[in-house]
Every structure is written in structure tokens, then in C-alpha cells.
Amino acid sequence: MQSNSTPSKSRQDWDLVIGSKRGWFELHLVDLWRYRDLLWMFVRRDFVAVYKQTILGPIWFFIQPLLTTLTFTIIFNGVAKLSTEGTPPFLFYLAGTTPWNYFATCLTKTSTTFKDNANLFGKVYFPRLITPLSIVVSTLIQFAIQFVALVIALGWFLLQGVDIHPNLLGIIFGTPLLILMLGGLGLGLGVIISSLTTKYRDLAFLVTFGVQLGMYATPVVYPLSVAPEKYRFWLELNPMAGIIEAFRSLYLGAGTFSWGLLAYATGFMVLTLFLGIVIFNRVEKTFMDTV
Amino acid sequence: MSDIVIQVSELSKQYRLGEISTGVLVRDLNRWWQKLRGRPDPYERIRDNYVTSAKSSPTATDVVLALENVSFEVRQGEVLGIIGRNGAGKSTLLKILSRVTSPTTGNIKVRGRLASLLEVGTGFHPELTGRENIFLNGAILGMSKADILKHFDEIVDFSGCGQFIDTPVKRYSSGMYVRLAFSVAAHLKTDILIVDEVLAVGDMEFQKKCLGRMGEVAKQGRSVLVVSHNMASISSLCSRAILIQKGGIIADGKVEEVVPLYLQSGAEQSGLFKPPPEEIPGNELVQLLSVEITQDGANCPCADVDIAKDVIIRISYRCLREGLQLYTAIWLKDSMGTVVLCSGNAPDFNSLEDPWWGKAHPVGVYCTEGRIAGNFLNYGRYLVTPIVGITPSKTQILLEDKISFDVHDTGSMRKTYFGHRIGVVHPPLPWQTERAPE
Fold first, then answer.
1. Cβ–Cβ contacts within 10 Å for residue B154, how many?
2. Which helix (H) or strand (E) holds A262?
């Protein structure tokens, strides 16, 4: 059989070879581009599916962070008397939870990719990475709604003549970059976890819990500057610290804007994302046999 | 020579029974730690005991080969049927071809774009409208938005759901849902299409439409791989078929040759099905003791029958509970799986009156004999499915295609024409010609 098929085979290359082994770095990113329409369809599906048959629709995304922020204002500022670096507490917490929520939602949602899509993945091939990517994109909608809340609040406080100094130029150029970092970090960590959960189910519990704890390990409800010197180093090891601080300093003019921390966060994000994609790529080939 | 579009070489797929990992991170870490300190695996014993209790030798049974050294090629424009019993490895082959899972060894080379339909309506979301789902499903199957837009009207027309295209599909009837889903798939413009059993969807009319569509696809020079249990659709659709058994290909050739092999692979060919006592099929009510094919004048079971004589089918069974009202019946199929007839000792089928039909059977052995008239069947191979049940129609035993027989043309009906006679049956019928007034 080999002998009679060889001539025609060598003349023309095969378009696709399905083999047992795939190199660690064969990521098939071109495939991803070919399926870009699918990415948008998934985003659209997620959006429509969430808002159909709810009373308030997208307003839920508005209410939730406002309530959270209100609670934080009462607990951490009113009761615990944590510093907000001279900015209005409400604004301080809102500017912290908005980026944090985006990151946290990306992470938790992508971390269940394999489990949630087992049925779909078992029936048809498409680049699996499309699914977590679409989550990161569709979570942007939620982010946008909360962002609008932040901008409105910011405008309101500015009109009141409160002493805050948003950096307009920084906002325009910095926000997209910060969002990219948040999304990249959430995606990277999320796909690593989702890859591991195909083998270890108990990691899934860790995620919800870990994200909750993670918020306290990140300067969301307190500024980095109030952290005692001996904990400071450990807090700065958290790549989210630099991002959140930078975000807040752009919008409120308060906080630690550190290029060093941002560079560290970028490096961390790129590494995590790369590692995540490699592992994900590894797992997607055979996970149907273990799920 | 037409081009090869798929080349499967020495493909194997191995599944592990009983996971290699314990499934819990802490345990895996612990196991690794113990191994590092040179201690025995703390979980090994548990696993061993478990496996030993289930199967006799743990190492040998841990691994199951779902596919073993499968090699074949598909040429452009070819419609290839893949057939085999449940568990033969068809689905595994399909999953590897669809890139849902990957092979353990071997590889598949593909030329051109490949799309697979293991299910219709993959990814349909109930909250989305028909229109939105067409785009979503199309994108999942690998179509670009522009592709879908181009064929959108065709898809809607084909499905016949035009009126409801902006209604969420959760309000569709199941028939409409399936029709819409198939329509999207039917308009996939890929070079190679892999289809699994999706033909059996919708009502008769729509099924016909689907079958026609598959044929069209092949005529356009694209290749199709079909997996199905429906031999009728396989034989009408495919030119070539592959028969898979226990993970390997046991036949590869023209569909007319392979389909009969599949149907007969489980059939007794000696004219007598009589299992040893420990393998007697049945339950606590009734057991099927034997099925025998014979003819008048032959005083033993005989699978080669004369076309001119009655074919006699004897079914012996044992009634195990006092007072059951039992019946016997058969299905008769031709070698391509088409059902020729269904008959039995019930008055609905019976030209005689069976004294035991509808009567309470005392515990004991019974034998039902049925006859298929001579010169009724055509020559060729036929398969019998014996059935024993409790009236009214509570089937207890049904052994599909359990025994086969060959009808031989002895020439008694050959008078003027000596060529091949088409048709499943060949009964002499009354014909007469009269001169008609002009």
C-alpha cells in the first residue's frame, strides 16, 4: 500500500496531518485566525444568552459593583478606617474593583473551559483556544458597563470639586494596555487551571476560593502605600498589584504608579500566557479520553 | 488515477482502563513523594485490589486497544461507508478523523478541508433565534461568516423553517430543530465530509432530502465518509465500504460485497443454531433452544435450499413459567439488510391455525415450524431473526440476523431467460395477454 501511494503523495503536500505526537510549540495559531468568526459568534452567544429572560438585563452588571463598592466603603473605610490616600472612598473602591472584577471574571470563567465545553469539544474540532479567548472578550462587555459607572462617578465627584487628578492622556493610552494585561493574565492563569482540572477536579474549588483571597492579597481595598515595609515585597510580587495601582493612579491621581511594577507585571503576563497556551495545547489533544 | 484525499496509516488508539492518575492532586503528590523516598506507592495496593477483583490480570487488562493498525485510503469523490457492530471501533476512528481526540500511534494525512458531523446542531443555543444559530453552528463547523451569508437563503429554504427564522429555537418543535441543524451541515463547503448516523433524522420526506443531498455532495467531486447502522442507506449512498471488527479492518471493498459480510458476521451458516447449554439465550420466563432451517426431503438442517421447495424454519423454545401465552415470529432480511417480510404463528400472519397460539403453555419444550413457500424468494442469501415473546407483543428474545440460508436456483423456473434476476422475491404471478380491439 505504501509503495503505490508514495508517488502522488510526494508530488503534493498534505494539508493536514493528524498524528500522535505534537511538538510542545506547535501552537497552530494560524488556525485560530481562520476561526475568528467563531470567536465573535461565541461572544454574541454569551451576550444574548445572559440578557434574554432577565428583568434588568445588563443593569445587573451595574448594580453588582455598585453594591460591592458601597459595602466596601462602609466596612473598610467606615468601620476599619483603611486609608484611601485622600480620595473619596467610594471612588477609590470603584476604581479598584472595576479592573479586579475583569481579571477575576476572566480567570474563573476560563478556568472551567474544558469542563463546561466537554460536550461541544467531544463532537467537533475547532481550535479550542477560541473558547477561553471568547470569554475574555465577552467579559469586556461586563467591564465596559462597570467602566461607565466609574466614569459617571468620576464626573460626579469632579463636578463636586473634590481633590482628584485624573490623567487624561494616561487614561487614553494606558487603559487599553492595562485591560490587555488584565485579560492576558486572567486568560493565562485560567487556561493553566482549566488544563490541570481535566486531571485534578479538586483544583476547581481552589479557584473560587483563591480568587476571593487574591483580592485581599492585591491592593484593591487598600492602597499599596499603607502596606507595612516587611509585607511590601511580597505584595509587589503579585503582578496584579502594579496593574491595579497604575489603574487607580491614572484615574484618581493617587497611588503608586511604578514602571518597574508594570514591567514586572507585563513579563509575568506574557510568561503566564505563553505557558498557559502551551499547556492548553498539550491537553486539548487527549482530554476527551480523561474527562 | 484519482487523487487520494485521506490516507490513514497504521492508526492505533489505546484507552487505559482505570486511570493512571489517582485524580486528586494531593494523592499524586504524595505518591511522588513516597516514590522519591523509596517507599511503595501508597495507592498502588488499593488500585491493584480493585483491578484484580474485576479482571484477573491487572497489567494486561489495564489497556484496551480500540483501534489497532488501521490503514486505508479515500480517493476524491468517493463515498465510503464505515460499518461495524457496536464497540468495533467506528466511533473512535471517527473521533480521530474529526480531531476530537488523537491517535496513540500512526497518523492520518488529509488533503483539502475536512469537516465532520458527529451530531447535528452541535452548539445550538436554545435562547438564540434560528438565524443566530445558523451563524453560530456554521462557525463551529468551520464556515466563515461570508460563506454562511452566501448560502443563508439556501439553508433556510432547505430547512423549511423560513417562517420561524427569528424565533428562539427553544420554541421549535424537535423536527424543525433537527431540520434546521441538518440544513446548516448540508451546506458545508468542504472537500471532505465525515458523517455519523445523522441521516436518521426528521420525517421520511426530510430523510429522503438528506440522502439526496449527500449524493449530490459526492457528485460535486467531494469525498464523504459515512458511519451508519442503517445498511439500506449505506448501500444506496456508498460505492465502497469498510467493515471494522474489534478495532481492525476485516473487509474493504465494494459496498455490495462488504455489507453482506457485516450482516452475516454474527449469523450461523450451518442451518442450525443450537447454543451449548451455558449459552442458551433467554430469561427466567423463556429460553430459545434452537433455530433450524431445512426443507422437505432433507432430514437434517440445511442452509442451502432449493428455490423450488418450501423453506422450513423451526424454532424450539422452553417455557419456564406455568401458563405463559407465548408466540414465535421471524424477520427475514436479504443480504443487504432489507427486510423482506415479518411473520409468525399469530393469526395475523398465519394461514393455518396454531393450536398453541394464545394458549397458556405448561412448562416444557415447544417447537414452532413455519414455511416460506417454494419459488417465492429469489436466489441469494437471506438472514433470519428469530423472536419469541409473550402475547400481546412482549418480546422476550430477539436475536438479530442469527441464522442465514442460501437459496439456490435449480433452474425449475428458468424457462426462457437465463440472466441475472433482480428483486428480493421472485414469486410466479398470474399474467395473461389478450388481443385488444383496435
1. 12
2. helix A259-284
**In angstroms, what CA-CA distances link B184 with A151, B156, B407?**
44, 9, 45
Q: Which residue is listed with cell 476561526?
A: A35
Residue among B12, B17, B107 with most chain A CBs within 10 A, to mutate: B107
Walk me through the domains of chain B, giving residue ranges and CATH numbers: 4-68 (no CATH), 73-264 (3.40.50.300), 272-408 (2.70.50.60)
Do A15 and B110 make contact, defined as CB atoms within 8 angstroms? yes
Residues of B whose CB is below 8 A from A22: 102
Mean pLDDT of chain B: 82
Residues 6 or more apart whose Cβ sits within 8 Å of residue B147: B138, B189
pLDDT in tens, B5-45: 899 988 888 887 654 555 556 666 676 676 666 666 555 44
Q: What is the dihedral of CA B124, B126, B132, B133, to 10 degrees?
A: 20
Distance of alpha carbon B319 from the chain centroid: 31
Residues B267 and B303: beta-carbon distance below 8 Å: no
Q: Which residue has the cell 477575576?
A: A104
Range of the domain at A80: 27-290
In total, the C-beta contacts within 8 angstroms joining chain A to chain B are: 132
Angle CA B93–B96–B97, to nearest 5: 85
Q: In what order do the strands lie in the sheet with B223-227?
A: B114-117, B192-196, B223-227, B79-83, B240-245, B248-254
* Local confidence band at B134 (pLDDT 50, 70, 90 cut-offs): very high
* Alpha-carbon distance A26 to nearest alpha carbon in chain B (angstroms): 15
pLDDT digits (tens, 9 = 90+) for A85-117: 888 888 899 999 999 999 999 999 998 888 888
Q: For A240, phi and psi rounded to 5 degrees?
A: -70, -25
